[in-house]
TrEMBL record:
Pfam families, A to Z: AraC_binding, HTH_18
InterPro entries: AraC-bd, Homeodomain-like_sf, HTH-like, HTH_AraC, RmlC-like_jellyroll
Presence of keyword DNA-binding: yes
Alphabetical keyword list: DNA-binding, Transcription, Transcription regulation
Domain HTH araC/xylS-type residue range list: 197-295
Listed PROSITE patterns: HTH_ARAC_FAMILY_2 (PS01124)
Keyword set includes S-adenosyl-L-methionine: no
Gene Ontology molecular functions: DNA-binding transcription factor activity; sequence-specific DNA binding
Designated name of the protein: Helix-turn-helix domain-containing protein
Amino acid sequence: MEIVRDPADAGWRHDGPIPGFGFDPPEAPVTGFEIGELAALRRRMDEGRLERFHRVESHALILITEGSGEHTVDFVTHPCRPGTLLWVRPGQVQRFGPADAVNGTHLVFTPAFPPRFTGADRLLTSWHGPTCRQLGAGREYAVISSLLAQLTAEYSHPDGTVSAEILRFVLAAVLLQIDRLPEPGAESGAGGSEVYARLIAELERSYASTRRAEDYARRLGYTVKTLTRACLAATGESAKHVIDTRVALEAQRLLAHTDEHVAVIGRRLGFKEPTNFSKFFTRLAGTTPGDFRAAHRDGG
């Protein structure tokens, strides 16, 4: 399936030096959606491709059903076992664990695929929502596993009989069920108000062009005070800190997963002077760009 991008996806385009990851299944009954087993995905990919760091272009949900292993997303390695649920978002950088260590359901969809008038819309704008949840074998696992089975059954219908509408609405149900899950303690506070959600969406589009809270307030029609109030409620941090954190995350990705010079990375993120970028990064990350790169060099 070569995903045809909807205009609503434009804010999620991440052209750049980090290798992207596109899916190319042999058959594509609908555009912008794919579901299947992890084992099947591995069989059609070049050996080792999934185990190399790559940037995700669409949303990916993974529910582990067999085995044990790990999955790395943006510098955090998550243990995987039956009942592990992963949500990897557009723009994030991931690496799968060793081949054949785990199996489960792998679902990928574009931001434009779910129906636009459901509460699932809000869940698609957050670039730092919870990535990993451990569901175990309880009721929550049963509910989400059942919905994924419904999606798999619909996606597997004979050619010409797959309903994109059914897929969209069942997917929305999956996302809303995930939203009901308790927040993992280490990643709590990813939700928030409409003001916060709009800021996060605009930040994803504009983080490389401006770091000024005033610019975001003007574009969104709010005051800086309103943005900060929304960010404090959602994350406990000011609007300026939320903005700077997003820029620092992209800098970390580029430092760890590319060979670009530090000055080039700084220019990509809107810093005209390398020294200003170095000071900014050191303040946010607690280490210099060079030291961060040395500590996070890709192994493959």
